[in-house]
Design brief:
The chain is an all-beta fold and 308 residues long. It has a domain of 212 residues: TolB, C-terminal domain (Neuraminidase). The protein is built from no helices and 29 strands. Strands 18, 19, 20, 21 and 22 form a five-stranded antiparallel β-sheet that branches. Strands 1-29-28-27 form a four-stranded antiparallel β-sheet, with no helix packed on it. A hairpin with a 5-residue loop joins strand 23 and strand 24. It is globular and about 45 Å long. The two termini are 28 Å apart.
Length: 308
C-alpha cells in the first residue's frame, strides 16, 4: 500500500519526535541541529530551545511543557546531501531527560541516571493518563562496541525514575501505549522487532523484565530497522521503518502486518497523528530533512494531553 503525501517543509537537520499542536503547527526535535523547533502550517521553522547533545524524542506533558529524550549526541556522516547518524559523539557527556517551557524556552534537566547508573541514549517518550511517562534508552554505539538498551518510567517533577525492562539487547527506540494502557510497546531498532509488556499499574509491569520471546509482538520482514511508534485508535501499532522507508502497521496480536509506503527516504523515523478527526499523519524523513503529511486511512489514537 502506498499513500500520497505533501511536504510541509524541508531543510531540517535530522528531524524526529513530531508533536501535532492545536494551532496546526508541529513541534519536533532536530537531532543534528540540537534544537527543539516549531514548524508552522505554512512550513516556516523557528527554534524554541537549544538543547545540546542529541535531542531524540519529545512529548507534550500534563503541564503544557515539552519533555525531551536527549541521547547525548552522535558523530554525523554527510553523503549526497543526506545526514546519517554515526557512533557516539566525541564530546558525548551522557544522556538525559529534559523539560522545555514553551513560553520561555527554559530548559531543565530532570534525569541523567537511574539508581546511580547513567542514562546512555534516551530515545522516545510517551505519557500515560496519570501524568507519568515511559521512555526508552537506545544506548550508544562506538566503533567496536555498543550498550544494551532499556525501558524506564518516570515522573515529571524529577523525583522518581525506575528501570522497568533491562536489557533490550538491540536498544529501545519507539515507545507507545495501547488505547486502554494495559500494554506498553517498544521497538528494537537493528533487529526490526516489536515488543510488548503487560502493565499492572502505572509504571509497573506484570511480567517480563527483559526483552524475550514471551514479549515479542512481531519481527519485521527482511532487513529492516524499527524506529518510532504511534498507535491507531483501534490499537494497531504504526512503526516507522528504516530500510524500505514507510510505516509498518501491526495488529496488537501480531497476526496482521501491512507496510505503508509514504515519502521517499529510507530513513523514515517518526509518525504522529493530528487534525480534527485524527486522520492526518505527520511523518519525519530524517536523512533528507523533510516533514511530510498524508491522509491516513484510520484515525490515530489521541495522546494524553493532546488538545488538537
Amino acid at each position: 500500500m502506498s499513500l500520497e503525501y505533501q511536504e510541509i517543509t524541508s531543510g531540517l537537520r535530522f528531524p524526529e519526535g513530531p508533536i501535532a499542536m492545536p494551532d496546526g503547527s508541529i513541534i519536533l526535535v532536530e537531532i543534528e541541529r540540537q534544537t527543539l523547533s516549531r514548524v508552522s502550517p505554512e512550513g516556516n521553522t523557528e527554534i524554541i530551545a537549544n538543547l545540546g547533545g542529541g535531542p531524540n524524542g519529545a512529548a507534550l506533558g500534563p503541564d503544557g511543557a515539552i519533555y525531551v529524550c536527549n541521547n547525548g549526541g552522535f558523530d554525523w556522516r554527510y553523503v549526497d546531501n543526506r545526514i546519517f547518524p554515526g557512533p557516539q559523539a566525541e564530546n558525548y557527556q551522557g544522556g538525559s531527560i529534559q523539560k522545555v517551557v514553551l513560553e520561555t524556552g527554559e530548559v531543565t534537566t530532570l534525569y541523567a541516571e537511574c539508581n546511580g547508573i547513567p542514562l546512555r541514549g534516551p530515545n522516545d517518550i510517551v505519557f500515560d493518563r496519570e501524568g507519568g511517562f515511559w521512555f526508552t534508552d537506545l544506548g550508544k554505539s562506538r566503533l567496536r562496541d555498543r550498550d544494551f538498551g532499556g525501558l524506564y518510567y518516570a515522573s515529571i517533577d524529577g523525583s522518581s525514575i525506575q528501570e522497568a525492562v533491562y536489557p533490550i539487547p538491540g536498544g529501545g527506540n519507539g515507545v507507545g501505549l495501547s488505547p486502554d494502557e494495559s500494554v506498553v510497546y517498544a521497538a528494537e531498532t537493528p533487529t526490526g522487532r516489536l515488543f510488548g509488556w503487560n502493565i499492572s499499574s502505572p509504571g509497573l509491569l506484570t511480567e517480563g523484565q527483559t526483552a524475550g520471546f514471551s514479549n515479542l509482538v512481531q519481527s519485521g520482514s527482511g532487513y529492516v530497522s524499527f524506529d518510532s511508534i504511534a498507535l491507531e485508535e483501534n490499537g494497531n501499532i504504526c512503526v516507522a521503518t528504516i530500510g524500505p522507508g514507510g510505516i509498518t502497521v501491526i495488529s496488537p496480536d501480531g497476526q496482521s502486518v501491512e507496510h505503508v509506503a509514504v515519502g521517499n527516504d529510507p530513513f523514515t523515523t517518526n509518525i504522529c497523528f493530528g487534525g480534527a478527526d485524527m486522520k492526518t499523519a505527520f511523518i519525519t524523513l530524517s536523512s533528507i530533512g523533510s516533514l511530510i503529511s498524508c491522509s491516513w486511512p484510520r484515525p490515530g489514537l489521541k495522546l494524553n494531553f493532546q488538545t488538537n
